[in-house]
Amino acid sequence: MTEYSTILVSTSGRVGTIQLNRPKALNALNETVMEEVITAATAFDADPRIGAIVLTGSDKAFAAGADIKQMADMDYPAMYAADFFQRWEDFAALRTPVVAAVNGYALGGGCELAMMTDVIIAGESAKFGQPEINLGVIPGMGGSQRLARSVGKAKTMDMVLTGRHIDAAEAERIGLVSRVVADDQTLAEATKVAETIAAKSKPATQLAKEAVASAFETSLSQGLLFERRIFHSLFSTEDQAEGMAAFAEKREPQWKHR
Ligand code: CO8
């Protein structure tokens, strides 16, 4: 078992859970957090026993952003040479569906990390924001792009230009989060969602994630073609035959590939 210093990792059934654990810095994302989250998530991604991943933080903070103290003294050549935080894209590229359980602050890189997941469950007191403008910079882990694609220009400009925090109710209204629940139910609900996903056919859930993700990358006609080809390809799996037979026979499907 790999030893981690900034995250806690556990497995329950077919769900792998990663909890950000830098309480003194409100889970600010430094390079160690990034390396550890990606190492743990990549291991879950490669594990045939895991069908979904939950990513969570603490009651006070999912993550309060990139580590400002780590970045403060960096200059442009250092940022550029390190291609600073580019590695987070490996997290966005995971095949396994990821459910975020967000309580407290999801700010800056924390909001951007949540947006790299596939389903966001927020506690009612959660706060989302892209406050980088207050530091004299802009979002750098996808905030200007993923937020615009998920909630549109009006709310993205509002959040990115003013740096204001939005609450969970507004985040749900604008389509940034999937569900809002009582604060003490966030992790339980996210785990339930992950268990639901993990109980299904793995080729189907992974390809569904890939198909939806492609909607943010391609033109409509290319995306529709990609979706249709994936749909066609699933007819080569035993799970398609089983899923459709089970429906006709009015029974639960027994998935071969999980
Ligand atoms: N980085 C480093 N330390 C942090 C961060 C952070 N982002 N956020 C909080 N902390 C630390 C505080 O410094 C404090 O430490 P200490 O006790 O040693 O002083 C501790 O966590 C507790 O924080 P507060 O005392 O401030 O707690 P409050 O409850 O008073 O306030 C807030 C909570 C409102 C969340 C406040 O901490 C805050 O505003 N934090 C900063 C939020 C922010 O600006 N986030 C954006 C950061 S920039 C970013 O994310 C860019 C992402 C892209 C990078 C990739 C580039 C390529």
Describe the fold and architecture.
Belongs to the enoyl-CoA hydratase/isomerase family. This protein has 258 residues and is an alpha/beta fold. Helices cover 45% and strands 16% of the residues. The protein has helices spanning 31-46, 68-71, 76-82, 88-92, 109-116, 143-151, 153-162, 168-173, 186-198, 202-214, 220-233, 238-248, and strands at residues 7-12, 15-20, 52-56, 61-63, 98-102, 105-107, 119-123, 127-129, 166-167, 179-181. The model has no long low-confidence stretch (mean pLDDT 96). Strands 1-2-3-5-7-10 form a six-stranded mixed sheet, with helices on both faces. A four-stranded mixed sheet has the order 4-6-8-9.
Short overview:
By secondary structure, the chain is of the alpha/beta class. Helix content is 45%, strand content 16%. The protein binds octanoyl-coenzyme A.
